[in-house]
Amino acid sequence: MSNGITVRLEIRSEPIRRELEKIVLSVRGLVVVRGEVAAGLLIHEIGEDPPRDFELVEKLVQAGVAREVFLTSARSEPEILMQALRSGAREFFVQPLNADEVRATLERHALRGATSRRKGRVIYLVGSKGGVGTTTVAVNLAASLRALGAENSVAVIDMNQLFGEVPLFLDVEPVFNWGEVAKNIARLDATYLMSIITRHSCGVCILPSPSQFDRLQAATPDTVERLLSVMREEFDYIVVDGGQSFDELSLKIMELADTVLVVSILSLPCMINVRRLLETFKSLGFPRAEQVRVVVNRFQKHAGITLKEAEEGIGRPIAWTIPNDYAATMSGINQGKLLQEVAPRAEVTKNLQDLATSLTKKGAAPGHGQHHREGA
Questions:
Q1: Mean per-residue pLDDT for 90-103?
Q2: CATH at 217
Q3: pLDDT digits (tens, 9 = 90+) for 9-44
Q4: How far are the Cα atoms of 24, 102, 145, 154, 344 from residue 150, in angstroms, in the given order?
Q5: Which of 58, 171, 177, 334 gets the most CB atoms within 10 Å of its CB?
């Protein structure tokens, strides 16, 4: 028997089957098996009779034919996705296939099978005030983390309850949100989680906030802790857009986070709020001082407040500055696109890529001096 993870293809369309087989064979650690044999992964095509196909998939899963199931179909209506979720499928590939996306997903699957469980890092972003660009930084930081390597799996959670804008910033329309998790916490596992997550074209996975109050009511700190526990096993980085939230859910995430980025701009009200946040963290006992990084967004050399004055006011160094580029950032926001799409060579885009590098396990943690003084 092969030493790789076995993949069984149940695909009616011959062109799709050939394309999938080619992609599977291009991924190290995966091998294709033929015939009705048990496999590590089953990729099944949903055809013209979805109810029949889903019933078959459920039977195959129950019979132990495959440890995991991925589905593919030319149809992607919400009811099809819902049924895919219920069937226990982990991934869903829409046809025509996006070869790069399929390959990246299969590479992550192979990596999961070849290594022990990962323990992803949680990066929480909190804004010192509304309108300082917390969501812009969150989504572009997540995309930059993903771009550092195909092996990096990255997710964004939108904790801006009721008014979350992450889907708008990325021009996606998710079917599910983390309110679904809260209402179905008893069935939360990796398969269920990956079934409700929306994947952006850049490879970042998105878990938006609920838009209905009843979904919010179901969420508790224990729910959030359970969600992050499962996500740590599936992703290398979980970027949380906390907005200006400071409720019990946000506090729980901050308590569990590896890094907290306090996003601000160089204005007196914002700096006062930053100081208050830092004092609150100290009184709570979390996050620890070494876990917190103050990030100044829309930085300009000749602002009314200098970096030195800001640092004296908050009582600690500013870890990072992101240059002001109104044209590029507003273009991205209005089009629902990332900075790496609308302005790949802009200074602000490279800056966020550098920030991502500094936050990786292999990179140095962002600290006082070098980066922001270059732009000071």
A1: 92
A2: 3.40.50.300
A3: 999 999 999 999 999 999 988 989 888 777 788 999
A4: 16, 12, 10, 10, 18
A5: 177
Q: Taking Cα atoms as reference points, which of 66, 71, 76, 64 lies closest to residue 45?
A: 71
* Residue 348 φ then ψ, to 5°: -65, -35
Q: Are residues 31 and 108 in the same domain?
A: yes
Q: Say what the pTM is.
A: 0.69
Instruction: List the one residue out of 117, 94, 90, 95 whose CA is nearest residue 106.
Output: 90
Task: Tell me which DSSP letter residue 285 carries.
Answer: T
Number of domains the chain contains: 2
pLDDT at residue 303 above 50? yes
pLDDT (0 to 100) of residue 289: 92
Closest CA to 190 of 150, 154, 222, 232: 232
What token pair was written down for 253? 């995430």
Beta strands per DSSP E along the chain: 5-10, 30-33, 39-45, 66-73, 91-94, 121-127, 154-158, 198-199, 205-207, 237-241, 259-264, 292-299, 320-323
* pLDDT for residue 1 is more than 60: no
Enumerate the β-bridge partners of residue 237. 121, 154
196 and 161, same structural domain? yes
- Cβ–Cβ < 8 Å for 57, 69: yes
Work out the average pLDDT over 341-358. 96
Same domain, 289 and 271: yes
Q: Which domain holds residue 168?
A: 121-374
Q: How many CB atoms lie within 10 A of CB 79?
A: 10
- pLDDT value, residue 293: 97
Q: Which two tokens stand for residue 52?
A: 């029949």
Check if the beta carbon of residue 154 is closer than 8 Å to that of residue 203. yes
Phi, psi (rounded to 5 degrees) for 362: -85, -20
Strands (E), 95-246: 121-127, 154-158, 198-199, 205-207, 237-241
The arithmetic mean of pLDDT across residues 336-348, rounded, is 96
**94 and 131 in one domain?**
no
Going from the C-alpha of 105 to that of each of 99, 101, 202, 205, the distances in angstroms are: 10, 6, 12, 11
**Which residue, 323, 326, 279, 268, is CA-closest to 300?**
323
- State the chain's mean pLDDT as an integer: 86
In the prediction, which pLDDT does 55 show? 85
